[in-house]
Design a protein that fits this description.
By secondary structure, the protein is mainly beta. The chain is 0% helix and 65% strand. The protein has a domain at 39-86.
């Protein structure tokens, strides 16, 4: 029997400090805030194979004024995967 479609969502928050960061216009510590959102839709194709499609968005904001937003970025990743389980 094939199961129904499954939806998953994940959220990640990371408060990151990079000590002794080498840059001439920044302080000794780079401080980033990272937000990551992930959405996954999956469905079994048969008893041993599962198909999933996913979308992941990442936003990173550097808090100090030294780099003036140089290390701020956003990223969008999407795709599909087949999982085999025996």
């Amino acid at each position: 029997m094939i199961e129904k479609i499954k939806f998953e969502t994940n959220f990640l928050f990371q408060d990151a400090f990079y000590h002794h960061y080498p840059s001439t216009d920044s302080p000794e510590v780079r401080h980033d805030l990272r937000y990551q959102y992930e959405f996954i839709l999956s469905r079994p194709l048969c008893s041993y194979v599962n198909l999933a499609i996913f979308y992941k968005r990442t936003d990173v904001n550097t808090l100090h004024d030294g780099v003036n937003g140089r290390y701020n970025f956003d990223r969008n990743i999407y795709g599909f995967e087949l999982k085999f389980r025996y």
